[in-house]
Amino acid sequence: MKRKLPLLFIDQGFKIDSNYYIENVLEGYLLPHAQKLYETEYFCFQQDSSLTHQANPTQEWCNQNLSDFISSKELLAASVDLNTLDFCVWGYMLSKIGVTKGLTSLKIG
After folding, report:
1. CA distances from 37 to 26, 34, 43, 46, 93 (A)
2. What is the reported pLDDT for 108?
3. Cα separation, 36 vs 34, whole angstroms
């Protein structure tokens, strides 16, 4: 059974460091939603290769608090299979913020 967490939007221009990411995204958003959606079922967490995601505190938090995740050392930078944000989520997000056709890239932050 496929399940999806609702998207979490961060204010444009806001600088996210590993402390903010851990406290507000991982602890404050991911865990409560994942526990509700998956209860005791298995799930694997994946991040992209941003510096905040690769930071040692982030990797340590994931290692201690998630039953399974793809670490930054395991992430294949050019893998289409592991890069779902670029191929699935961006189009949806752009439509929600009113970006029209013809835009090939959007710099956020």
Report:
1. 15, 5, 10, 16, 22
2. 47
3. 5
